[in-house]
């Protein structure tokens, strides 16, 4: 069934209060729910109370204390016919957490019990109007075996606890803040806390706990530091204070997504909590900080103000991603953070926008809402709000968000409410801007600069491509920050923000005796794709001189993208042209390595080659083999050409001791960067350096970087390092995930064979999403593996591997299985032979009996 945004109806019944009583047990938990229900004055007066269920059977149903006989099932839902306006409904269900492999609702993970209710998991716990516009005050009581479940947690504050004579104990929790059921959480198990506290600006002392399994407590300090920093930052940046006396975070090893913002009780995937230098890379540290911030910031953007319906998901996710991006930018290097965020957008969201699953940040319809927790809703959603901030200016934007929080506190709001608040508070006219909420597709902006007399004229035009269900598009307002560099001085005269709001527009700039060098979309002000025929020399100039770090990175990327696209797209006709392109890139890269004014973290960004996914995006139809060969060819040429520089760089940065500061982190980033180029151009040199780096490593960043490089090489050092790594970290699931991921993501010619062997290894299991992603997502996003580039011809072995995985995983964990459809869904943009093989695998999946709604929706849309 298709759910449509336009068909929203307010609920007929509200549930101002709910009491939940859990008799906890791993495979049979009894749930008694007592709902105070009240007819909604905004409803249409219907007397049927619809309580959603998913796989539940009611043991007893009472209304106002009397056994009810006026109830029936409608599919999975329980319907009760009521008269009058106020009732108390009590329902008893029994569920099996240990049998819950979908990891939605109440489930068991490593002997502990935990919940995930967003989006529609609460209906797997008890019958309830499972929609975000029904807000209730929760009282929770739980009882269970004290030895098995020594710690009992839920939302809000613990109001009472005690022990029984039979070895069980109990706890009662009360959350004073009304919330939708997707924010309910319960955790019971053997856990140990890193405890600290934070005093808010208003003087409220908040107890903070990061709960983990015993043995993991030494890896929680970074999460705690990040939490305290988040709480402080939100007070300063957005004026948001925490509103309870307690804030709990629990780390769980079996988790479908990253983490969950349940009120006062955030539940996290262990990978976004646990970190120490021995087991976590610098990137892992950043991810912990970002996700801790993200979930904490949801307390206001998500919890105090929630969503009216799931079509509004970007209201909380887009805004909260923007907030976590701003937080991380303030904690570290803002320039590097911006570049990383754009890289994620381009490699994950742009392909979504140009593929069969394209949808606006506020979708119009869905079959399974879990499929809409996408890079579009999250990352493009953040970009859309960031554009408002760029247009309003920092201070006016803050007035807008202040107004939004004040106006809608306690409500279930819409994206439209947010836009209106920004209009009113920041003084913007966003009438046309609303197109960003309703139109899918990445706008393509064509740029041309011409020059006559002393006037430089910028000609811009935009096309928003057709996407499924949206054949015709309106022009969007596209804010572009730009600067024009004087060729004589090498300087610009200040930045300007222009807004392209029509299909075409021209902007004139006077006072230029020569045509200036254009730097446009500085800071990536708009999530668009820009095409221009900038001369290579201008890109080289910007790559060396642009004072906007993002623009400098962009110039470097464009230089490489232009060359590689020409090389694979046929624009390069002879070897001399290829060589000229490589020479220009080689000189630019050498300048980056030599530039003593650059910090190493930024140098690392400038040295990264554009991904194959991003290169494919530039072509209507891509030949993954040609792209891979040309990109690897360039990398190998650079590795040979710059070998001395790269080895000197590797020597320099290898001399720095471990530290968490920017310099030491920059050094670690470059260590592996240098090896990556050397591995392509001078594999023997790289193998010995990587083996030495592996052996000398006193931290995971160096160790993983070295192992990654070794994994792609056909050398005995590879097997030695892999065996050492496996044994050294035995029992540490998150590090063993890396061991899987590095092998499945490698450039090794036998990578697909390795994937198959790993799938059969005793460490592999389909029941743990982290392990599944470590092996199969790494494979699906690795062109070498996915497109089986080592094979003679095209035999589709990579596609078959992913399709087999989808079929095997779907009955176990549909949400995670459905995430693997998108890579196959790219078939329309791939050369004909591979395209047919990809499509055939999708058809094979589509034909399977009993596919989940999650996978069926994605497969059907992908076949189109
Ligand atoms: N709201 C969470 C977050 O972004 C993610 C929700 C997980 N959703 C799911 N369907 N498992 O922070
Ligand atoms: Zn979120």
Characterise this structure.
This protein has 864 residues and is α+β, with helices and mostly antiparallel strands. 42% of the residues lie in helices and 21% in strands. The strands form 8 sheets. Strands 6-5-9-3-2-12-15-14 form an 8-stranded mixed sheet, with no helix packed on it. The protein has a 5-stranded mixed sheet with strand order 17-18-19-21-20, with helices on one face. A 4-stranded antiparallel sheet has the order 10-11-16-13, with no helix packed on it. Helix 14 (624-641) packs across helix 16 (662-681). It is globular and about 90 Å long. The mean pLDDT is 98. Bound molecules: arginine and zinc ion (ZN). Zinc ion binds next to helix 3. Zinc ion (ZN) binds at residues 294, 298, 317, 320.
List the helices and strands and how they pair.
Layout: E1 3-4, E2 13-23, E3 29-39, E4 48-51, E5 58-63, E6 66-67, E7 71-74, E8 77-81, E9 86-95, E10 105-109, E11 112-116, E12 136-145, E13 151-154, E14 157-163, E15 168-179, E16 186-189, E17 192-199, E18 205-212, H1 221-238, E19 246-252, E20 259-260, E21 265-269, H2 282-297, E22 306-307, H3 313-331, H4 334-353, E23 365-366, H5 375-392, H6 394-408, E24 412-413, H7 415-426, H8 435-438, E25 444-452, E26 455-463, E27 478-485, E28 496-500, E29 504-510, E30 517-520, E31 529-532, H9 536-545, H10 549-569, H11 575-594, H12 600-606, H13 612-617, H14 624-641, H15 643-654, H16 662-681, H17 683-696, H18 700-711, H19 716-728, H20 733-744, H21 751-760, H22 769-780, H23 783-786, H24 797-809, H25 814-818, H26 821-824, H27 832-847, H28 853-863
Parallel strand pairs: 2-12, 18-19, 19-21, 22-24, 25-31
Antiparallel strand pairs: 1-23, 2-3, 3-9, 4-8, 5-6, 5-9, 7-8, 10-11, 11-16, 12-15, 13-16, 14-15, 17-18, 20-21, 25-26, 26-29, 27-28, 27-30
Helix pairs in contact: 1-2, 2-3, 3-4, 3-5, 4-5, 5-6, 6-7, 9-10, 9-11, 10-11, 10-14, 12-16, 14-16, 15-16, 16-17, 16-18, 17-18, 20-22, 24-27, 27-28
Arginine is lined by residues 116, 118-119, 256-257, 259-261, 294-295, 317, 370, 373.
